[in-house]
Design goal:
elongated, ATP-binding protein, 5-stranded parallel β-sheet, 940 residues, DUF499, 10% strand
């Protein structure tokens, strides 16, 4: 996209660039122009008209002035009455320069076309009187050479015709009485053409107290003069009176000012023509000319505006007026400003009584442009979202028109180094890249600050917020996301019916933020809520039980597969060998309370991602805070609007909390050990897998991930079982393994396969014995003969202490031997004798020619019935060594049904210097608590 920033196409005037403009530069002062002390943009007629946009109202007024000066008609009296800062004084300066004729009209930009319309080639120089109410005092006469002037009429006569004109009303001036319309008309006639410019007239008249005489006359005599003046100007075709009057009572100043304004309005209404105020579009051009020099490249400007217009049409989520063809022309006219700035200022801010419609906008925009220029702003247009409200001058200019209480709103919720929008931009690169949060907050402030709580419709809608923020190549969705984040977190931002506004009163979010701190410690307040939601979303096969935030002492040590959900504090991090989750899970597989855990291979763990836990905590606190507000709505005395706000936020955070918990708990971990090539197993480590699913119940996704990565096996192949059998059990000196012992080993040792349940093993054995490629199954063994051997055919597999899995070679030998024996019976119907003369069955071992005889009946084997062992433990590593002894020795006895196991722990401690009293007390107390049968200290 080949369009240029505004700063590359148009340059501000030097005083704006340098930041040397003063407020007085934008507050036109007619008296300074008369005195010759005004800035050049007011004092020099050529510069003045170069920077002045002749509005429709000014054009009509100047047209009337030109007619009066040339005696071709026009209005004898014009009342300039617009809002404060609406350009009244500026218009009077324009009249002053035209009437004085200090420069020919062809040097006054914009004036020759007006003369051409009236077929006038040049204007005559007029006699001009300027009566500035702020520069005159009723009680202080003024020296004019040898003459002392006291009154308004004396001042007017002196300025129009000097001493000659003054002498005609000298007596009236000395006595403070009105001269009458005939004398005034005579002066106008003699000194023709004449123009009287009256600025701040109310400011002068309101100083008179009724019933009291001043050097400048009385209240009544001044009112009589104004009436005579308006009538006299009407009798002389080349005389004209222009008077500026305030539009509001505030500008009039107090009760005296309001009274004077009412009477003067009444007098002027009889003859005056009211000047049409500046329209918004004209105001834009006025500001643009006063702030910027001429545009360097109109075609480049048009390209920028066309790109914006195309974006609005294609986007479809902007205000409807942007789709209209004239909006493109508005953008061109306002360039480099975006029309939305002026729409907000002229439609919203102009409703404030003390807002200066033209002057205020001009001053604000000069400050904005200066700061943006200094900050090297590269926006394509200057938009509501561009206004740097963190600048102290700009902030002060904005809040000067608003009621008290807006400064903290700006500092915290709108703009500034410590504001929430700035924080959001810093923490989210997607926002920070385009200052999305700040642009949104600025747009909302500009469009909502002037609105009040009494209005039925407040603030601006999302379409206008996008309009104030979005530039080409930017996604409006980013600003929508920023708006949603701000709406969740700001204290002074309100919303309703898709409209957003700021207010000086904090919203319920402040109450919610305060309440969030109540929910500590998190283990007590947050974990129950998180656990409740996890339990609701974790149900079903293949886990026999799901333990959410359960201590290891309460998790049974059995052969069922169990899912253990760890608290958020026990989080996990991808590919990190040791995490809080693996540390805690390690304790779970080693212990059940104070006892060692036997079945270490039956626990799988679900844990939260380390980076997501803070989000879980934050959203849980927010949900609980909003829920508590609803619970306390009566105590808080909430109105219906706030109840609705609280209900909506509670609902939103309820949904959001479910989502963040779902996203956070995405790791399943399980213990594992690898078989080493030289025998034995390696160190224990943790397998990790990420669970990604949009399904509410994530058990299905967990099961799928576990099965896919063989962390939990729901179906198994006989070949895999065969491999495990040959790796660990079936060796040259061992031809079978107890099915019960095999299953117990699968449940106990992490290096063994982790099957869902015994049925998986049972089905695998059933499938394997149908073939002669894997192994056989026997229901028992009597000496060297397998009872109920199944090999190469279907059969039932039972789980009991006698069931065996048989090496396929041994199964094959027995099957062959039984077959041979059967064949011999058929042939000889006898059994060959052995060396000892007993009846036996001969089975040849592999690699031998002669059969090995096995007695058919033998005496019962004598077996050991008692075990006793003593071991000395290292006191430093006693806990670890005892755990190893339990696993490697004791568990072999405790797993045998009917075996009584007694363990006695004997402790002896000897100190050469004797034990301290504190040690003695502690050990005695702990011994009693732990149930020691005998525990005592001895002196010798």
């Amino acid at each position: 996209m080949n369009i240029k920033p505004w700063r590359d196409l148009i340059k501000p005037h030097q005083n704006v660039l340098a930041g040397t403009f003063q407020e007085s530069e934008f507050a036109a002062d007619l008296n300074k122009v008369v005195m010759g002390s005004a800035p050049s943009e007011y004092q020099d007629p050529s510069i003045f008209f170069e920077r002045t946009f002749i509005t429709e109202g000014m054009k009509l007024m100047l047209n009337s002035v030109i007619k009066r000066l040339t005696g071709k008609g026009g209005d004898p009296v014009v009342q300039l009455q617009t809002a404060f800062g609406g350009g009244k004084t500026h218009a009077m300066i324009a009249v002053y320069h035209i009437a004085k004729g200090d420069k020919p009209t062809f040097q006054l930009p914009g004036i020759p076309p007006l003369l051409d319309l009236l077929n006038i080639s040049e204007l005559p120089r007029a006699h001009v009187a300027v009566l500035d109410g702020n520069s005159l005092s009723p009680s202080q006469p003024r020296k004019k050479g040898n003459i002392t002037v006291n009154t308004l009429w004396g001042e007017m006569a002196w300025q129009i015709g000097g001493e000659e004109a003054y002498r005609r009303l000298e007596k009236a001036d000395q006595e403070g009485t009105s001269p009458g319309k005939e004398i005034l008309a005579d002066i106008f006639q003699r000194f023709s053409p004449s123009i009287v410019l009256m600025d701040e007239t109310v400011a002068y008249i309101r100083q008179f107290v009724e019933g009291k005489a001043y050097a400048g006359g009385t209240y009544g005599s001044n009112m009589a003069f104004l009436q005579a003046l308006t009538e006299a100007s009407g009798h002389v075709p080349t005389a004209m009176v222009l008077a500026s009057l305030p539009e509001s009572d505030i500008e009039a100043g107090g009760e005296r000012g309001k009274q004077a304004l009412r009477q003067i309005e009444h007098l002027f209404h009889r003859l005056e023509a009211i000047w049409k105020p500046v329209s918004s579009e004209e105001g834009i051009e006025i500001v643009r000319r006063r702030v910027f020099s001429k545009l360097s490249d109109p075609e480049a400007r048009d390209a920028v505006c066309k790109t914006f217009a195309d974006m609005y049409i294609k986007g479809g989520n902007y205000p409807s007026e942007t789709m209209e063809s004239n909006y493109l022309e508005r953008m061109k006219s306002a360039y480099p400003f975006h029309p939305e700035i002026f729409d907000r200022l002229y439609e919203d801010w102009a409703s404030l009584e003390n807002f200066q419609r033209t002057r205020g906008v001009l001053r604000l925009m000069a400050m904005v442009v200066h700061r943006l220029w200094m900050d090297d702003n590269k926006d394509y247009l200057i938009m509501p979202g561009s206004i740097p409200m963190h600048d102290n001058q700009i902030k002060s200019e904005l809040i000067r028109y608003l009621p008290t209480g807006w400064e903290p709103v700006l500092d915290r919720d709108v703009d500034g180094p410590k504001s929430m929008p700035t924080t959001l931009d810093k923490n989210d690169t997607r926002f920070g890249r385009i200052h999305a949060a700040r642009r949104v907050s600025r747009s909302i402030f500009l469009g909502s600050a002037p609105t009040t709580s009494g209005q039925k419709i407040r603030g601006i809608n999302a379409e206008h917020i996008r309009l104030g923020c979005t530039q080409p190549e930017q996604s409006s969705g980013t600003f929508d996301d920023a708006l949603n984040r701000l709406n969740d977190q700001l204290y002074y931002l309100y919303s309703g019916n898709d409209r957003y506004w700021y207010d000086t009163q904090t919203n319920l979010r402040r109450e919610a933020e305060d309440r969030m701190s109540r929910f500590e410690p998190k283990e007590e307040h947050l974990f129950p809520e998180i656990a409740k939601r996890l339990k609701a979303n974790l149900k079903g096969y293949p886990f026999s039980s799901i333990h959410v935030f359960t201590p290891h002492s309460d998790i049974p040590d059995d052969m069922h597969i169990r899912l253990v959900v760890l608290p958020p504090t026990e989080h996990h991090y991808y590919k990190r060998k040791i995490t809080m989750a693996t540390k805690t899970a390690g304790e779970f597989i080693q212990k059940r309370g104070q006892q060692p855990r036997l079945n270490q291979n039956r626990l799988i763990f679900l844990c939260a991602d380390e980076d997501a836990t803070s989000t879980v905590y934050d959203n849980t606190r927010r949900y609980l805070a909003w829920k508590s507000i609803i619970d306390d709505k009566d105590a808080l005395n909430l109105d219906q609007h706030r109840i609705k706000e609280a209900t909506k936020n509670c609902h939103d955070y309820n949904q959001r909390l479910n989502g963040v918990i779902h996203q956070a708990y995405k790791w399943v971990i399980a213990p594992n050990q690898d078989a080493e090539t030289k025998g034995g197993v390696g160190n224990l480590y943790w397998e990790e897998q990420k669970v990604m699913t949009t399904d509410t119940n994530i058990i299905n996704a967990i099961t799928h991930v576990l099965a896919e990565n063989e962390m939990l096996i729901p179906r198994w192949s006989p070949i895999h079982l065969t491999n495990e059998l040959h790796r660990w059990y079936l060796k040259a000196d061992r031809q079978d393994i107890s099915l019960k012992n095999l299953w117990e080993d699968f449940c106990r040792y992490p290096y063994m396969p982790r099957l869902v349940d015994f049925k998986v093993l049972q089905d695998t054995v059933s499938s394997g014995i149908e073939s002669t490629d894997f192994f056989g199954y026997a229901s028992g063994r009597k000496e060297s003969r397998y009872i109920g051997l199944i090999f190469g055919k279907t059969g039932s597999v039972c789980y009991d202490e006698k069931s065996l899995i048989v090496h396929k070679d041994a199964a094959h030998r027995q099957i062959e031997a039984e077959k041979n024996q059967s064949d011999q019976k058929d042939q000889n119907n006898n059994v060959f004798p052995t060396d000892n003369g007993s009846n036996s069955i001969g089975v040849a071992e592999p690699g031998t020619k002669n059969p090995i005889t096995h007695p058919t009946e033998t005496e019962p084997l004598k077996r050991s019935k008692r075990f006793h062992g003593t071991v000395i433990l290292d006191p430093v590593k006693a806990s670890l060594e005892f755990s190893t002894i339990t696993q490697e020795v004791i568990q072999h006895f405790s797993s045998i049904i009917g075996t009584e196991v007694n363990i006695t722990l004997e402790i002896e401690a000897i100190s050469a210097h004797g034990f301290e009293d504190e040690i003695i007390r502690t050990v005695q107390e702990n011994s009693r608590t732990l149930g020691f049968n005998h525990a005592e200290f001895e002196e010798d």
